[in-house]
Automatic annotation (TrEMBL):
Protein name as catalogued: Membrane protein
Phylogenetic classification of the source organism: Bacteria, Bacillati, Bacillota, Bacilli, Bacillales
Species assigned in the record: Paenibacillus qinlingensis
Transmembrane residue ranges: 12-35, 55-77, 89-110, 136-158
UniProt KW keywords: Membrane, Transmembrane, Transmembrane helix
């Protein structure tokens, strides 16, 4: 595939950064809303936090994730980086899979379950075991999401580990 011009690369990279920033900002918002939800006894506020997280998980999280993945793949295949030439890119791809599972799927399910639990009986009558379990899953998901996103930002800046080593048919190590 033909590589892109420097100007097109800059525009695509700018889009990639914008989508990534939206994704990180939404994850931080999830953290703030979830801390608010567990630190209050106001059932209306708790339900509002869960509803806000649920809306974000179905909109902003999905849109930013799709935008980030599409622009990231295009940057990889249309520039010299490639999809599997560098170890740091492979690690980013693995972290992206984690973000895909946690973001639009995990957060969506856990916030919907929280809304369902709270809507049926309110915070006073909620099944504490199910609610606490769901909240723990949500916190773990948010933490892992934030860690994976921050790790991807760091990897993008420092680009550690260099090119992958491969072996040719003779058995000598060559680089891509």
């Amino acid at each position: 595939m033909k590589t892109m011009s420097l100007m097109n690369k800059k525009w695509l990279l700018s889009l990639h950064i914008v989508f990534s920033a939206i994704m990180l900002g939404t994850s931080v918002t999830f953290l703030i809303l979830s801390i608010t939800a567990v630190s209050t006894q106001d059932s209306v506020l708790v339900l509002a936090c869960y509803k806000a997280m649920h809306v974000l998980s179905g909109s902003s999280v999905r849109a930013s994730l799709i935008g980030t993945v599409v622009t990231g793949v295009l940057l990889s295949v249309r520039t010299h980086w490639g999809l599997v030439k560098y170890n740091w890119i492979i690690v980013k791809e693995i972290l992206t899979l984690i973000a895909i599972v946690l973001g639009p799927f995990g957060m969506y399910v856990w916030t919907l379950k929280g809304i369902t639990l709270l809507t049926d009986v309110g915070i006073e009558g909620v099944n504490q075991g199910a609610y606490v379990t769901n909240t723990v899953y949500l916190f773990i998901g948010i933490g892992l999401q934030l860690l994976s996103l921050l790790a991807m930002f760091v990897l993008s800046v420092f680009k550690p580990w260099g090119k992958r080593k491969t072996r040719n048919k003779v058995g000598t190590v060559v680089r891509f």
